[in-house]
Write a structure and sequence with these properties.
Thymidylate_kin-like_dom; about 15% strand; alpha/beta; five-stranded parallel sheet; Rossmann fold; globular; 5 strands
Length: about 220
């Protein structure tokens, strides 16, 4: 293996992403690392956490978008080291697509796709993205509503913006494919196997070089 593969799992809030990230990470261990954005342990991540969990803590939508992007940028060196130097796979919970989709869903003047994506250009791109879709509402999941964006009507807007974001960022040569997996009424194990079916060929394929994909 020339370098590790970068697998991203995306989805709406409480869609089961974190559970599946942990399952895939365990499946690929010991040759893997799991990561999650926002990374709340950094100074920037601490501000983001305060914004998400304290609804009285306000800041402009443009500011929080740039903080989310900065949070991704501050972890790029670690991501590259893990993939290229350590030759480990990365299983990621949320990344660029979430950042764009959630900001677009706010429908703020001036925050169009080009503006939202501009600060993420150059970030390391996943080798594969898995998007978990549940046709039933996630608002009955335990913990739903604790954070700022966990509102049913807003989540519906976010889903629409995810679709737009995937289309706009699609690569012509399909070097960074997005696989949509319907998890409606499926068990955790069933979803795990569906994810593994599309991920296994990617992590099993040899990379032609250490070169990483970029947005």
């Amino acid at each position: 293996m020339t370098r590790g593969k970068f697998i991203l799992i995306e989805g709406l809030d409480r869609a089961g992403k974190t559970t599946q990230v942990n399952r895939l990470y365990e499946r690929l261990s010991p040759n893997s690392e799991s990561m999650k954005f926002p990374e709340r342990s950094t100074q920037i991540g601490g501000l983001i956490n305060e914004y998400l969990t304290n609804k009285s803590f306000q800041m402009p939508d443009q500011t929080i978008h740039l903080l989310f992007s900065s949070n991704r940028w501050e972890r790029q060196e670690y991501i590259e080291k893990t993939l290229v130097t350590d030759k480990k796979h990365i299983v990621m919970d949320r990344y660029v697509y979430s950042g764009i989709a959630y900001s677009l869903a706010k429908e703020v003047d001036g925050m169009d796709f080009d503006w939202c994506f501009g600060c993420d250009k150059g970030l390391i791109r996943p080798d594969m993205t898995v998007f978990l879709v549940n046709s039933k509402s996630n608002d009955n999941r335990e913990g739903f509503g604790k954070e700022r964006y966990e509102q049913k009507c807003f989540q519906e807007k976010v889903h629409e913006k995810f679709d737009i974001t995937f289309q706009k960022l699609a690569t012509k040569d399909n070097t960074s494919p997005v696989q949509i997996i319907d998890v409606t009424d499926k068990s955790i194990t069933e979803v795990e196997e569906l994810i593994w079916k599309v991920v296994e060929p990617v992590v099993g394929a040899k990379s032609a070089s250490n070169q990483l994909l970029r947005f």
